[in-house]
Amino acid sequence: MFYLANFNMLWISALAIGIVIIVGFLMVSKRKKKEPVPTLYKAIHGIGTIIGASIVVIAAFMGDTRLWTNIILATIIVVLGLIMSFGKLTKSSAIKILSLHMIIAITCYVIFLYYIFI
């Protein structure tokens, strides 16, 4: 575990990633309504991911080997997110990539919460 001043930093990571997931759902709901996604949502989604993932990587390098599963899954999630952000996708492929991004992200988060609680 990664502690700072007797506080488990993985809880900060879980909070940041939880916010990322909520904002991700807000972004999807905006797109479904054919509304533009506010830049603030995109910023929170990206910055929250960096904060949450950084803490997990630090904890893994400090010896919490369970977290390597999350790091591998998070790498896939980020790559899919970057493809959606910068790729020129058809509507069909965008939906498939988004679905995969969301399914892996939620799975990764559930695994991460399991690791925190055990």
Question: What do these coordinates show?
Answer:
By secondary structure, the protein is mostly helical. The chain has one domain. 79% of the residues lie in helices and 3% in strands. It has a two-stranded antiparallel ribbon. It is elongated, with a radius of gyration of 15 Å. The N and C termini lie close together (11 Å). The mean pLDDT is 94.
Task: List the SSEs and their pairings.
Layout: E1 3-4, E2 7-8, H1 9-32, H2 39-61, H3 68-86, H4 91-117
Antiparallel strand pairs: 1-2
Helix pairs in contact: 1-2, 1-4, 2-3, 3-4
Strand order of the largest sheet: 1-2
- Beta-strand content: under 5%
Q: Roughly how many Å apart are the termini? A: 11 Å
Radius of gyration: 15 Å
Q: What number is the mean pLDDT?
A: 94
Largest β sheet strand count, sense and barrel closure: 2 strands, antiparallel
| Share in helix | over 70%
Label the overall shape: elongated
User: How many distinct helices?
Assistant: 4
Q: What structural category do the secondary elements indicate?
A: mainly alpha
- Tally of individual domains: 1
Secondary-structure element pattern, one letter each: EEHHHH
Q: How many E strands? A: 2
Low-confidence stretches: none
